[in-house]
Amino acid sequence: MKVELDTDKCVASGQCVLTAMDVFDQDDDGIVVLLAEEPGADQLDDVREAVAVCPAAAIRLVEK
Amino acid sequence: MADTPLPAPEFPMPRSAKCPFDPPPELTKLREQGPLTKVRLWDGTEPWLVTTYAQQRALLGDPRVSADPDTPGYPTKATPAAGEGKLSFVMMDDPEHARLRRMVTAPFAIKKVEALRPAVQTIVDGLIDDLLAGPNPADLVEAFALPLPSLVICELLGVPYDDHDFFQDNTKTMVRRTATPDERAAASREIGGYLGELIGRRLTDPRDDLISGIAARITAGELDHRQATEMALLLLIAGHETTANMIALGTLALLRNPDQLALLRESDDPKFVAGAVEELLRYLHITHLGRRRAVTGDIEIAGRTIKAGEGVILVNEIGNRDPEVFPDPDRLDLTRDARRHVAFGFGVHQCLGQPLARVELQVVYGTLYKRLPGLRAAIPFEDVRFKNDAFIYGVHELPVTW
Ligand code: SF4
C-alpha cells in the first residue's frame, strides 16, 4: 500500500500528524509532508484513520 | 387526492430542559427520519437541514458548497439577533480562502502548538492558584474558563507581558454577556488599534511570534495593514468563547457524570486525557446552531436534489450523536474513540485553531480536577442558566465550591 498526498488541498489541520506521527509531518507552513511513502503493515490502521479524519481529503491510500 | 405537505419545522428548535446536554429532541427525530429535510427559519425562508454524519461530511467537503454569506441561497442568520459580520477567510471560498488561511497556518502546526504546552500548563496552574487563594465559592467561568484562552492567545500572538491587563480587560468586554453593543464595539476598536500598533512594531523588530508572522506578510506585499489587523483580530476572537464554554459546560457535564469525572481525576495517562477531550468535544458540541452554506451547483443526496441557489444548514451536533458512527451516542463515555467527531467542522473550513484548543483542553481536563478533587457545583442543577439563544452553547456562569 502506498500513501499519496494532494498538498494543494491540505488545510494544515495536523489531523494526520496526530494520528500517524511516523508517516506524516508538516512543513514550516503546516502543510502535510510524507515521511513514509510505503508504511508498514503495523502503520496501516493509523494511516486509514488519518485518511478518515483529514478534513480536506488530501490523503489517499492506494494499492501498489 | 394530493397530499398537503406538512409545514417545515421551525429551526432552531428548543432543547429539552430535562437534559440540557442533549440536542433538541425534535432534531434527533428528524435525523431518524432521514438525512435531509426542509426547515423554516425566523424570516420564513426554508433551507435544507442535513442531519446525518456521513451526509454532513460529504457536503462540507464538497466544492459546490459555499461559505460566503453573499452567495445566493445562503441561509439567513439563525436568529434575527445573531449579528456577525463577514469574518476574514472564514466566510470566503477558495482560492481566496486558501490564500489567506495559509498565511496563518504555521503557528498551528502540531509541533509548534506542542511547544506551547508548558506555557499553557503554567497559565492553568497560575489560574488555579488564584482560584484557591480567592473567595470560595467562585464562578468558574469568570475566574478560570474565560481568562485561560485570553492568556494563551496573548502568548501565541506575542502580546508583551506588560500589556496583559489592557489586553485581557478588553477581550473580556468583547465576550462579556452583559456588555452593551457600544461597550463591545469600543473594546473591539481598542484591541484592533492595539493589534494594528503591535503589527507596526513587529514590522521593524520581528520576533518569533504570530504577530511578526502576519507583519512579514505586509512586507511581502501579500496583505495590507488593515487586512493584517483583521486577521489578528479573527484569531484573537475565535478561540475565546469556544474554549471557555468547553471548559465550563464540560465541567458541569462531568459533575453530572461522577464516574467519568473520577476517570479523569485518577488518570495520569496523557493519551487517555486526549481521548477524553475528543469525547467531550463530541458530546457537548457547543457550536450548536449549525453550519450554514449555500449550494452553487445541483447536488444529489439521499435520492433528492439540492439545487444551485438553495441553502443548507449542517447541524453537526446531531451528526456527532449519529448512532451509525458513535454507538449509544447520548452516553458520555470518556473511554470511547470519538476522534471522528465533527465538532470542529469538516472540509476546508475546519477550525484552524483546533490543535491549540486541544492542548488547552487537555491541560485543563488533566489538571483542574486533580488540583480541586472536591470540586462541586455551588448551586442546584436546576438553577444553572444555559446559553440557549447564544451562538456558542454553554453556561452563563458556573458557581463552584471545593
Ligand atoms: S489531515 Fe489533511 S488537511 Fe490536515 S494536515 Fe493532514 S493532510 Fe493536511
Automatic annotation (TrEMBL), chain A:
Cofactor (UniProt): [3Fe-4S] cluster
Keywords of this entry: 3Fe-4S, Electron transport, Iron, Iron-sulfur, Metal-binding, Transport
One MF annotation (Gene Ontology) recorded for this entry: electron transfer activity
Protein function: Ferredoxins are iron-sulfur proteins that transfer electrons in a wide variety of metabolic reactions.
Name of the protein described by the UniProt record: Ferredoxin
Species for this entry: Streptomyces roseirectus
Automatic annotation (TrEMBL), chain B:
Region (Disordered): 1-25
InterPro entries, sorted: Cyt_P450, Cyt_P450_B, Cyt_P450_CS, Cyt_P450_sf
Any one GO MF annotation of this record: monooxygenase activity
Keyword Membrane belongs to the record: no
Positions with biased composition (Pro residues): 1-12
Superkingdom field: Bacteria
Keyword list, A-Z: Heme, Iron, Metal-binding, Monooxygenase, Oxidoreductase
SUPFAM superfamilies xrefs: Cytochrome P450
Family listed: Belongs to the cytochrome P450 family.
Record's protein name: Cytochrome P450
Natural source organism: Streptomyces roseirectus
Organism ancestry: Bacteria, Bacillati, Actinomycetota, Actinomycetes, Kitasatosporales
